[in-house]
């Protein structure tokens, strides 16, 4: 077993030949001599009303931004990519297939009852159980936890999941094969423990403030739907002494102009984003308050591949070739976004992914090929392609959709009729398959291309395109078994090449993350996934 030195972690060689990791976590790192404000309260806009705060019922940053403050996982990924202990104090593994986690002594839920290894087992069983209908039901299978894929497919009972409690504080996870990204994947919010007793008592109402119990630095104190969610310090959090913010308010403002106006009025400390049509002016007037961070995320339009005309890959590929992505990334957005021709990222997890050949063709050659593909699929000037393009309500999504529909009309004679729905409604529409093409995006769950590519595997719970290609599934299967980064990259490239031909989803651009941040907010440093956590922040005297 090759050991790698990891910054901030202590490697312990055990007599069994296993490896354990242990360290102390520090949350808000306030520089010595910093004067803090007397009132430590933060207001952050969160972009939309969350679909739920049940970690097993959600799938986007709108929910995970809040859930990550309310719950701790076994581990977390630090900004530099290293793994830090959270609810698990240390762990060891045997042959990278049997992982043993030791929970911190004395950790409790926010109501003071003990958090046990049995809680983790039950929570993960609930996640994969088809009855839960979690968008992330396939995730433990993608980690190669024993029986997880079969359970999610309804072929085995959830109790057969390869996770067991050896005692109240020791958890054993068994994999079918080594998984290179296992520890980073373990940090995902869908894998936090939830309270079995609470859910048994209150059912779907367990996340209401009067019932809520969590394991994180904060707990809900108020939830007024479509107005705000308020959370306060969890005094029972194991690392509470290192939190500084006492109260955090999350606002569900989807109108970007309103977000900026309330920021200017002093009502918001951190905006959800920066509107593209105000970006240059805000940079000029607010300077360093405009924060731009790299982000492993891709904006795309996904097709319903089971519904004509999008059951024909020629139609999907034609629309991909007919979109002027440079213009969308550089002119419509213009904040540092890059045009996207791959679904994952050009550089991710030590791997470089190459664009398809047609991405480098001269624009006219691409458009000529796109028109030919549409003609071969049965479309013409007298019988033009027409479809509905759905996006969730937000000014930027509208601007991009208008630009895309205009390009398709001008370049290919295609008519894309624009539709918009509120976030929660759009997600329901997407998961029920009642769409032609829908705007979506994927923020990496961990620093590896599989986090994007698994969404298009046959039967994956996030595969709302219903795309299925055995060669694609096999490429990802081989990538997961690969013993080196180079070998893994070879199979990821194969998978991306297949997506470039079949185009179940049309990549538009690779993200940057933008926020307006008040100068008195200390500790603000989003990670490569675009997340920042309230427990890391503090308010300076101002």
Molecular structure report:
This protein is α+β, with helices and mostly antiparallel strands. The protein has 16 helices and 22 strands. The strands form six sheets. Strands 1-2-6-7-9-8 form a six-stranded antiparallel beta sheet, with helices on one face. It has a six-stranded mixed beta sheet with strand order 14-20-13-19-17-18. The N and C termini lie far apart (52 Å). The model is unreliable at 1-26 (pLDDT under 50).
Descriptive keywords:
542 residues; alpha+beta; six-stranded antiparallel sheet; 28% helix; 22% strand; globular
Helix-strand blueprint:
Layout: E1 10-13, E2 19-22, E3 41-45, H1 61-70, E4 75-77, E5 83-85, E6 88-94, E7 98-103, H2 117-128, H3 139-142, H4 148-152, E8 163-167, E9 170-174, H5 182-186, H6 196-202, E10 218-224, E11 228-233, E12 247-251, H7 256-264, H8 279-286, E13 290-303, H9 313-321, H10 325-333, E14 338-339, E15 347-348, E16 351-352, H11 363-376, E17 386-392, H12 395-412, E18 415-421, H13 423-432, E19 437-443, H14 450-453, H15 470-481, H16 485-502, E20 505-516, E21 521-522, E22 538-539
Parallel strand pairs: 3-12, 17-18, 17-19
Antiparallel strand pairs: 1-2, 2-6, 4-5, 6-7, 7-9, 8-9, 10-11, 11-12, 13-19, 13-20, 14-20, 15-16, 21-22
Helix pairs in contact: 9-11, 15-16
Number of distinct beta strands: 22
Biggest sheet, spatial arrangement of strands: 1-2-6-7-9-8
Q: Characterize the largest beta sheet: strand count, sense, and whether it forms a barrel.
A: 6 strands, antiparallel
Name the beta content range.
15-25%
Question: How many whole angstroms does the radius of gyration measure?
Answer: 23 Å
Oligomer: single chain
Instruction: Name the average pLDDT.
Output: 93
User: What is the overall number of helices?
Assistant: 16
Estimate the global geometry from the Cα principal axes.
Answer: globular
By helix and strand content, what is the structural category?
alpha+beta
The level of helicity is 25-40%
- The span between the termini is 52 Å
Q: Low-confidence parts lasting 5 or more residues at pLDDT below 50?
A: 1-26
């Amino acid at each position: 077993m090759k050991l790698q030195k990891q910054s901030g972690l202590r490697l312990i060689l055990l007599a069994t030949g296993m490896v354990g990791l242990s360290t102390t976590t520090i949350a808000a790192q306030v520089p010595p001599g910093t004067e803090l404000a007397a009132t430590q309260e933060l207001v952050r806009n969160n972009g939309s009303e969350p679909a739920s705060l049940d970690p097993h019922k959600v799938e986007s940053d709108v929910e995970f931004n809040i859930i990550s403050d309310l719950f701790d996982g076994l581990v977390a990924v630090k900004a530099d990519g290293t793994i830090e202990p959270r609810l698990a104090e240390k762990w060891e593994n045997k042959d990278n297939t049997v992982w043993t986690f030791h929970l911190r002594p004395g950790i409790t839920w926010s109501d003071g009852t003990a958090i046990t290894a049995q809680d983790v087992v039950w929570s993960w069983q609930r996640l994969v159980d088809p009855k839960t209908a979690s968008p992330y039901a396939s995730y433990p299978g993608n980690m190669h936890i024993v029986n997880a894929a079969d359970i999610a497919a309804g072929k085995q009972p959830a109790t057969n999941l390869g996770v067991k409690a050896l005692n109240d504080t020791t958890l054993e996870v068994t994999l079918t094969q080594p998984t290179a990204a296992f520890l980073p994947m373990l940090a995902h919010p869908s894998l936090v423990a939830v309270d079995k007793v609470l859910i048994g008592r209150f059912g779907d109402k367990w996340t209401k403030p009067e019932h809520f119990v969590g394991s994180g630095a904060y707990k809900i104190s108020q939830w007024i739907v479509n107005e705000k969610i308020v959370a306060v310090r969890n005094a029972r959090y194991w690392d509470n002494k290192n939190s500084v913010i006492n109260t955090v308010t999350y606002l569900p403002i989807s109108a970007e102009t309103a977000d900026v106006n309330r920021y200017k009025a002093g009502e918001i400390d951190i905006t959800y984003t920066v509107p593209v049509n105000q970006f240059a002016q805000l940079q000029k007037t607010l300077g360093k308050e405009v924060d731009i961070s790299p982000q492993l995320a891709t904006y795309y339009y996904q097709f319903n591949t089971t519904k004509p005309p999008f059951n024909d890959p020629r139609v999907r590929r034609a629309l991909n070739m007919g979109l002027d992505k440079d213009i969308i990334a550089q002119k419509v957005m213009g904040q540092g976004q890059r045009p996207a021709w791959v679904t994952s990222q050009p550089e991710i997890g030590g791997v470089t992914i190459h664009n398809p050949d047609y991405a480098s063709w001269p624009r006219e050659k691409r458009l000529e090929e796109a028109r030919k593909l549409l003609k071969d699929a049965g479309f013409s000037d007298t019988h033009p392609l027409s479809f509905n393009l759905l996006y969730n309500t937000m000014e930027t999504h509208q601007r991009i959709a208008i630009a895309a529909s205009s390009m398709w009309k001008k370049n290919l004679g295609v008519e894309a009729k624009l539709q918009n729905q509120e976030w929660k409604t759009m997600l329901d529409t997407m998961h029920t398959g009642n769409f032609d093409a829908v705007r979506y995006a994927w923020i990496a769950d961990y620093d590896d291309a599989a986090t994007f590519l698994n969404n298009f595997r046959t039967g994956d719970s996030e595969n709302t395109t219903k795309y299925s290609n055995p060669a694609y599934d096999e490429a990802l299967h081989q990538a997961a078994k690969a013993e080196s980064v180079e070998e893994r990259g070879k199979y990821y490239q194969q998978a991306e090449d297949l997506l470039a031909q079949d185009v179940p989803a049309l990549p538009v651009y690779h993200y940057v993350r933008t926020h307006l941040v008040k100068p008195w907010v200390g500790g603000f440093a989003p990670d490569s996934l675009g997340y920042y956590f309230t427990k890391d922040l503090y308010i300076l005297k101002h």
